[in-house]
Design a protein that fits this description.
Layout: H1 6-11, H2 20-28, H3 33-37, H4 41-50, H5 71-82, H6 93-116, H7 121-129, H8 133-141, H9 143-147, H10 159-167, H11 171-181, H12 186-192, H13 199-202, H14 209-225, H15 237-244, H16 248-260, H17 280-342, H18 344-360, H19 364-391, E1 399-402, H20 403-420, E2 424-428, E3 435-438, H21 440-457, E4 463-468, E5 475-482, H22 489-493, H23 512-522, E6 526-529, E7 537-544, H24 548-556
Parallel strand pairs: 2-4
Antiparallel strand pairs: 1-3, 4-5, 5-7, 6-7
Helix pairs in contact: 2-17, 5-17, 6-7, 6-14, 6-16, 7-14, 8-11, 11-12, 12-14, 14-15, 17-19, 18-19, 19-23, 20-21, 21-23
Length: about 550
């Protein structure tokens, strides 16, 4: 082919043709094709184009079952019938050089990904093996022109200029055009199309900077030790090592290991060019027809079965959770009912006699001891009362009240305690015209419990903030934050369990949070703890928002 036309011909390729073994596997053994793609870049590109991608973090992986679809063999058969172009000359001098670089770069990229944990091993190895995609395309069009840049004395210092002079387009330009025309995944296309740039520049172009850094470093090290293909001439090695937080000794050990790992490629009895092997196209068509005929019914049955299992699992999980919580509440209610009768009567006698003795006790020390008895008796009575309220709260008497009034009244209730403890109690971000539906007394009690919890946890000079978020349809969100020490991971898990005793200092050990959770839940809302590292302690209420016709009824009344 005439010089400078080869680059244009390369970007017009409809595909790179997988070798014979790869196409037979597509038809006969789809589970093996991902392994074969490590040795056959044309197969890897074909899968990235036509197989359904897996969700992140498997950036270059495939969704379960997609390799067994009828689409892949049918598409391959259609390309084979439509064109004889795109076959890689694997036995040629230039192709052996290019494949050697791709193989080593893939191994090193996988080791780097495993070391840095910035990308999955499979993704990094796959993308690195596709780094010389422009070389693959040029070699598939014209082997002689593909070899010529390697013999040019200016190539090492000016690879892009030499390639442009010989091919009409440099390798990076060919790669970018093919990646766009073949609609490769963005993380793959932007990475292999930007390898000539420094990391600082590439971060503005690529979708996955960490993956790019791993692949570029792997290809750069391979070119330094294998054959320079001009893939990474603009790379800054020190910049890559700094970003990946790697020492020079570490990358040296990884590269040494990568070059020691030998290829496990198995020789084939078939000609690698599938156009020279009879019946490959027919095999692909038959495989597609078979999967299309038998596959959908099986897939539908399996999908229905999986859906049924997931539904049953969710129902069982919810049922067990509800029954466990109901059993706990029933047990607490029974305990509270019995305790309320059996303990309150003796407590009344103890407290009454202690109060009577105080009035006639001349000794100050003994009088103070009697007052302590009264205080502790009252404390026990309060615990029993809170326990009963948590286990069997009264039926809510729903009303419609302004959200602002509810929050302002809660703030007013706790202001004396905040002043006493030198804690700022702030109310902000309350949206006007919003109404809450529920038992006002119970909601006020729930909000007060959480706010009190924050005031008692905040240090002197700290703060507690009550605010409301932007309303959503059917619900309102109220947020209570404080500058206290927060909850440990264990305490957060049991934040709403009654009498949990593992909470951090200052958080109390009673029934405040569990009762608040129960009261909000009984009024059709939700209370949850939202921990975030480095941010204030945060509890979020979701309350029922009064609908418009309820407000109209209220006004007409």
């Amino acid at each position: 082919m005439p010089g400078k036309a080869v680059g244009r011909a390369a970007v017009e390729l409809p595909w790179l043709c997988p070798n014979t073994d790869s196409l037979i596997a597509l038809a006969d053994a789809p589970a093996t094709v991902t392994g074969l793609s490590a040795a056959d870049p044309a197969l890897a590109i074909f899968l990235l184009r036509f197989a359904q991608s897996a969700p992140a973090p498997a950036l270059a992986g495939f969704a379960p079952g997609t390799l067994s679809s009828a689409l892949l063999p049918e598409t391959a058969a259609a390309f084979l019938a439509a064109t004889s172009a795109g076959v890689l000359p694997v036995a040629s001098f230039v192709m052996k050089k290019v494949l050697a670089v791709a193989e080593r770069a893939g191994i090193i990229a996988g080791l780097l990904a495993e070391t840095t944990r910035r990308a999955t091993t499979e993704s990094a190895a796959t993308v690195a093996r596709l780094a010389p995609m422009g070389w693959y395309a040029i070699a598939a069009v014209d082997t002689f022109n593909a070899t010529e840049p390697l013999s040019d004395p200016q190539f090492l210092s000016q690879p892009a200029n030499v390639q442009t002079e010989i091919w009409g387009l440099d390798h990076a330009a060919i790669t970018r055009r093919l990646a766009a025309r073949w609609k490769l995944p963005a993380c793959v296309a932007t990475t292999i199309g930007s390898l000539i740039h420094s990391f600082a520049v590439a971060t503005r172009l690529v979708t996955h900077p960490d993956l790019f850094a791993i692949v570029q470093l792997a290809v750069l090290e391979t070119e330094r030790n294998e054959t320079c293909l001009g893939l990474t001439y603009g790379a800054d090695r020190a910049e890559l090592l700094e970003h990946l937080q790697l020492e020079d000794s570490t990358i040296h050990a990884i590269v040494t290991q990568g070059f020691e790992l030998a290829s496990n490629q198995v020789s084939s009895c078939f000609d690698p060019n599938p156009h020279r092997v009879p019946l490959v196209r027919n095999l692909l068509r038959m495989a597609g027809e078979s999967r299309r005929r038998n596959g959908p019914a099986l897939v539908v049955r399996l999908e229905d079965r999986i859906d049924s299992l997931h539904t049953a699992l969710a129902e069982v999980g919810e049922l067990v959770s509800e029954r466990l919580r109901a059993a706990k509440l029933d047990a607490l209610a029974e305990l509270a009912a019995g305790a309320g009768h059996e303990i309150n009567n003796p407590l009344a006698v103890i407290s009454g006699n202690a109060q009577r003795l105080i009035r006639t006790e001349p000794d100050l020390e003994r009088a103070e001891a009697l007052r302590a008895i009264v205080r502790q008796a009252n404390r026990i009575a309060g615990i029993l009362r809170d326990l009963m309220q948590f286990a069997r709260p009264p039926r809510p008497n729903s009303r419609i009240v302004p959200l602002g009034d509810l929050l302002q009244n809660t703030r007013d209730d706790l202001t004396p305690l905040a002043i006493e403890r030198e804690v700022r109690l702030e109310l902000e971000g309350v949206y006007a015209g919003l109404w809450v539906e529920g038992d006002v007394t119970q909601l006020r009690h729930a909000l007060g419990s959480v706010v009190r919890n924050g005031v008692e946890a905040a240090p002197s000079g700290g703060w507690v903030r009550i605010s409301s978020a932007a309303p959503e349809e059917g619900s309102l969100t109220v947020v209570v934050e404080d500058s206290g020490p927060g909850l440990s991971s264990e305490a957060a898990e049991h934040a709403f369990d009654p009498f949990f005793c593992g909470r951090s200092a200052g958080r109390g050990r009673g029934l405040g949070l569990p009762t608040a959770w129960q009261l909000v839940r009984q009024n059709g809302g939700e209370l949850r703890f939202e921990p975030k590292d480095g941010e204030p302690t945060r509890f979020v209420f979701t309350l029922q928002r009064a609908v418009e016709h309820d407000l109209l009824s209220l006004r007409s009344a």
